[in-house]
Structures are given as C-alpha cells and as structure tokens.
Specification:
six-stranded mixed β-sheet, single chain, 6 strands, mainly alpha, Arc Repressor Mutant, subunit A, 67% helix, Rossmann fold
Length: 686
C-alpha cells in the first residue's frame, strides 16, 4: 500500500475514533468534529468527501448506525436505549435512518429472522450450484485482474475535481485611477460569462469583493470560498488599447494552469472577454453547451461608447445607495442614447429604480421599472438580466406567481446567479410553498454567496437554511445549522424560536418546547409570533383555558395595531373561544378562516378546508379533502407532527378511512424526503 493510502486510512480511522468517543452526544456534528481535528470545516468536508464519497454528516450518521447494528447483535438493550446511546435524540428518527441504511428496521435484526433466513437460502444455493460458482468466480477473478492491468493508468490518474471557481477583483495597473472602472468592468464581464456555464460553480461578485486589497494567500482564499480554482487579473487602458494579464490558478497546488497576456484594441474588448471565458472553461475541462456558447458569444452592444458608459455606471450602481443608484441611472441612460437597443442598460435602470423604491411605503417608480423591463426583454429576451428585471416588476406589484417563471427562466441563462437563486429560495419559502425547492435553492445560494457576508448576515442565512432543512424532515442537519446561526449571532431574533421547534421535531417534548418559547417571549413581550405559538401548543394539548389567555392577548394586539397576520390560525382561535362559551366571537373567527380558505392558492388548501369541514361536522367531505391533500408533494414536516394531534380533526378519528389517509400523507412525505435527499446528493449540495 502506498504512503498516500496509509495517510488517508489513518485520517478515516482517526475521525471514526473521535465520532465513537462522542457517540452518545447527539449535539456532536460536523463543526464539533472539525474542532477536534483542528481543521477548518470546509477542509474537513472536502477531505471526507474525497476519501469516502460521503458528506461529513452522512459519514457521522454511518458510524452511528454501524455501531447501533453491533449493539443490537451483542447486547440486550432495547431499540430505544440504543438509539440514544448512539446519539439519536428521537427513536422514530433512528428507526427511519436505520431502515434507509440497512433496508430493514432494527427490530428485525433483534429477532434474528433476516440473518437466519439468508443463511439457509445461501447454504441451499451453494450446495446445489457449487461447481458453477467456482468456475464463475475463477472467470471473474481473471476478468477483474485483466481490467486493472489494462486500466491502471486511467484509474490512478483520472480523479474528478469539482469545477468551482472564483474570479478575484482585477488590479488596475495604471497610475490613472479613472481607469479603475474599466478594469472592474473587465473582471465583471469575465465573471458574467463564466456564470453562464452550468458545469461550473462560480462564486458571486459580492463574495470576492472583500479580497480586493487582501494579503491572504491563494490557498487561504480558496479555502474560505470553498473553490478549487481562482482567476487573477490585472490590466489598464491606454488610449484605444487594452492591456490585460490573466491567470487561472489551481488552488491545491497554488500554481497557474493557464496564463495569457492580451494587448488589443478597445473595440475588440468583447472578443477578448469571450475568449477569456472559453479558455478558462477549456483549461478546467468544463462542458460548455452550444446554447451556453451562444450566450457567451452574444455582444451586449455594438457601440463601444455605449459600453463605456455602462461600465462607468457599474461602480455607483454596486453601492446600492440612493445617491449611487441615481448616478448610475444617469450613466445607463447615456449608454442608451448611444445605443437605443442596449438591453442590459435598460435592465439595470429597472434594477436601480427597484432598489430605490424597495423600502418605501409608497412606491414611486413602478411604471418606470415595468417600462425599462419591457424594453430589456424586447431587445434581448434571452438575457437573464432582462428576465430578472420583469420579475422584480411583478414583485413590486406583489404578483409573485407571475414573477416565478421569469426567475426560473433567468436561471437557465445564468445558472450561477446568486441573486436569482436566493430569490427563488425566498419565493418557495413564502409565496409559492414548495419545501423541496426551498431547500435546494437555499443550499445552492450558500455555495455561491456565503463568503460575502458579515457574521450577523451569515447568522440569518444559516437560520434560513436550518428552517429549510427541518421543513423537509432533515432534523440532524437543521440542528447543525441552527447552532451555526446562533454561534454567529447569539442575538439572532428568530433562531431560538426555530431551535425550539427543531428540538420538538427531534424529541417530541411539547413541554420543553413551550418552556423554550415562553423564555423567548419573556425577553420581548411584543413578540406576537411567539405569543400565538405558545397559545397553539396549549391548544394542541387541549388546555383551552391557558390557550385562551394567550390567544386573547394575541387577538387584542392584532386588533389594536390593525394587523393582518396568521389568518390560517383563526380556526384554532375560534375553537378555543367556542370552548370558553364565547360563541359569537368564535363564529367571527370561523367566518374569517373560511374566507382565508377560499383565497388560499397554496398546496395546503385541501388540508385547510378539511379542518373547516371537520368543525362543521361534514366528516365525509373533510376526509375527501384530506385525500386530495395526500396526493400533493413537498409539504412541511410540521404537517406530520401536528395534524394528528390537532383537536379540530378529532371528529374525523372515528371515520374508517382516517388512519389510512393520514398514513398516506406520512408515506408521501417520506417518499419525497428520500427523493430529495438523493437529488441533493447527486447535485453535490449535501
């Protein structure tokens, strides 16, 4: 065995030993393992993936499950006792993971039926076909040896490295600082062209900007950005010529694998930018489709003066301040005067007006956003920027479903657009609920953009990701990222709230969940979100007296401040008020809830209507609505955790089909969970 193989084996043995030492600690995850190994988290993730083909969290879970199998076979402990000893806080979650890994539940191992049955079948088969098996095995051995002899070179040298890349800010080599906008424009154009290639993972401009004046080494930057390649460049404009030095560096060796010096006329700048993208893609063996090549080759404008104004506008535009955006609009308009069909300039004017208007209660620039977006689409309908411009117009007027297809189409033209990816994650979390897409885009967004952010922003990004994980039933991962969120910012407003429910998903301890939420509410008694959650938990326990006290305070605040929040909870509030004998007020809540159901366009509508019918005594109709809901996909894990315990569904429990339809809802969820997990692994997002 080679030295390298020994080192790799020692590494795996070492991390496995550390996991086993901390086996019963359910909080022990990737971050804790990285600390014990004195490694950065990203370096640990890469090394585990390289040696095992598993993500770090998968590897930790595998070690726990292998140990559990050993304990089941060698001890008399119950499945519940073993699940806690190997670091699973929830027995049901342990059984689910065990079944996924071994193909059968842990209880079957305890019975010994599986092993005995397999042994008897195998013994019978061996006795009957012994001669044929020996011949077949001999043939296979020869075949395998031959394969390795003739393919040794191939198998030992071709190791696929993820095609992840960051384009660092280019340096201005001119003493004239006014040249900086042009050099920045070259960098941004190189980045934009690479982002159009789906086979690459390209870090966002905002993530690399902080390295403009850094003293950090290439390996350090690559590790922070979690990329395998970096592009460095420097240049200047002298009269009508562009001088550009550019190199592509492999992070693992800190050596250039492609270097080029350009000295071309400014009028040829588009050819230069396109060649740079193609050469880089070729150097790292990225697959570039013909459609992507067309996108790269397409010139934004034929007018070099217009393009110069456009590049000048990018500097103030990127500040995102009102003053900077106003200045940028003026320069984009000058670009359009030179080329009235300059789609990219129109799109950026739409973006600028949107950012100016974004936090204003009274929107002033809605029509300007729409007009410029339409012109951008008119002159280049296959531009990601044109499509995003139209999408933000629909966001401005709150027509979110109309915005969605524009964003998804934009991602086809620019698969690495962090702004589109993060918008899509936000859309699928809030406006067009789809838990699978929510998590997929949240993970992709972090891959493209996390390095740009300060600790507070990172805390909220990890909160967002944790929420996406738990909604899809990934409890361990959700807990890992909510802890990261709190580590980055202990004062995160929502993280403790989400943490309480993640712990409930893991442990099913409703008293502990109430205790954690009440503790947060006592810190800030204006938190209406937590107030109604505490009320709801008492409601689930059918403690209507206490639930009423909290709901009453919530309802009064909602009326006092004229807030249209949590309309989906009105049926619970109505039921509590009804239990307290306040029938007139209860009927108002039921009527409000019925209106909510009528206007609901989400996948949850059938479940909401089922709750209404159940309360109204329409039992068969309620069951039919639950059947409709059971045919849906990508709903939140909370449906499984709380629907059965919701008192509003109590009248349905005597129906002969209730348990069957609830089981279908649960089975459907875990089918989606398994498919999503496979998809995320294939996309290398987990």
């Amino acid at each position: 065995m080679s030295n390298a193989s020994n080192i790799e084996g020692d590494f795996i043995n070492q991390i496995e030993s550390i996991i086993l030492e901390n086996l019963s600690n359910e909080q022990f995850g990737v971050s804790e393992l990285a600390d014990k190994m004195n490694m950065s988290r990203s370096n640990l993730l890469r090394k585990i993936k390289k040696n095992t083909q598993f993500s770090a969290s998968q590897f930790i879970r595998q070690v726990r499950l292998k140990k559990s199998m050993q304990m089941i076979k060698e001890t008399q402990l119950t499945v519940s006792e073993i699940s806690y000893q190997v670091g699973f806080g929830s027995t049901s979650y342990f059984i689910k993971c065990f079944r996924e890994y071994y193909g059968h539940p842990p209880g079957e191992v305890g019975k010994g039926t599986l092993v005995e049955e397999k042994e008897s079948v195998q013994t019978h088969f061996l006795k009957r076909h012994q001669g044929q098996i020996i011949a077949a095995v001999t043939f296979l051995i020869v075949l395998v040896i031959s394969f390795f002899i003739f393919n040794k070179k191939l198998t030992t040298t071709e190791v696929e490295i993820e095609k992840s890349i960051a384009v660092l800010p280019f340096k201005n080599e001119s003493s004239d600082s006014s040249n900086l906008y042009f050099v920045n424009g070259l960098m941004e154009s190189a980045l934009n062209n690479l982002q159009k290639i789906e086979d690459l993972r390209v870090i966002s401009r905002t993530s690399v900007e902080k390295y403009r004046h850094t003293n950090k080494s290439i390996p350090e930057i690559a590790e922070e950005l979690n990329v395998n390649y970096l592009v460095e460049g420097s240049g200047q404009r002298i009269g009508d010529r562009v001088l550009l030095n550019i190199q592509l560096i492999e992070a693992s060796t800190d050596k250039p694998i492609w270097v080029k010096q350009y000295n071309q006329k400014v009028v040829d700048v588009f050819d230069l930018q396109n060649e740079v993208a193609k050469k880089i893609a070729d150097a790292i063996k990225a697959k570039v489709t013909s459609a992507e090549m067309d996108q790269i080759d397409k010139k934004p404008t034929e007018n070099i003066v217009a393009y110069d104004y456009y590049l000048q506008a990018l500097t103030p535009y990127n500040t995102k301040t009102k003053e900077g955006l106003v200045e940028a609009i003026s320069l984009f308009e000058k670009a359009i005067e030179q080329d009235p069909q300059f789609a990219l300039a129109y799109a950026n004017i739409a973006f600028s007006y949107y950012y100016i208007d974004k936090f204003q209660k009274q929107k002033k620039y809605t029509e300007l956003i729409n007009n410029n977006a339409d012109k951008a689409l008119l002159y280049n309908a296959k531009s990601a920027e044109s499509l995003i411009a139209k999408a933000i117009y629909y966001m401005q007027i709150k027509e979110y479903r109309l915005a969605l297809p524009h964003l998804e189409k934009a991602l086809e033209y620019n698969p690495n657009s962090s702004s589109v990816v993060n918008l899509l994650s936000y859309f699928y979390a809030n406006f067009v609920p789809n838990t699978s897409k929510y998590l997929t885009y949240a993970l992709k967004g972090i891959q493209l953009d996390i390095a740009a952010n300060d600790s507070i922003t990172k805390s909220y990004i990890y909160l967002h990701l944790s929420n996406a994980f738990v909604q899809n039933g990934f409890i361990e991962e959700a807990n890992e990222y909510i802890d990261k969120s709190l580590n980055y910012n202990q004062d995160n407003y929502f993280a403790p709230y989400v943490k309480a429910y993640i712990l409930y998903a893991r442990d099913r301890d409703i008293e502990k969940t109430k205790e954690l939420l009440i503790r947060e509410f006592q810190k800030d008694t204006t938190r209406l979100d937590i107030l109604q959650e505490v009320a709801k938990l008492h409601y689930y326990q059918e403690d209507y007296d206490t639930a009423f006290l909290y709901y009453k305070e919530f309802v009064e605040a909602r009326i006092k401040f004229n807030l249209d929040i949590y309309p989906q909870e009105d049926i619970k509030i109505g039921l509590v008020y009804e239990k307290m004998g306040l029938d007139e007020q209860a009927s108002e809540f039921f009527a409000s809830y019925a209106e909510y159901c009528e206007n609901d366009e989400s996948i949850y509508k059938p479940a909401s209507i089922a709750a209404l019918y159940s309360h109204e005594g329409k039992i068969d109709e309620a069951i039919e609505q639950l059947k409709v809901f059971a045919a849906n996909s990508n709903y939140q894990y909370w449906v499984l955790l709380f629907m059965k315990t919701d008192p509003v569904f109590k009248p349905l429990k005597s129906h002969p089909e209730f348990n069957e339809v609830m089981q279908k809802i649960e089975d459907r969820f875990w089918e989606n969970h398994t498919q999503l997990k496979k998809s995320l692994e294939e996309k290398k997002l987990i």
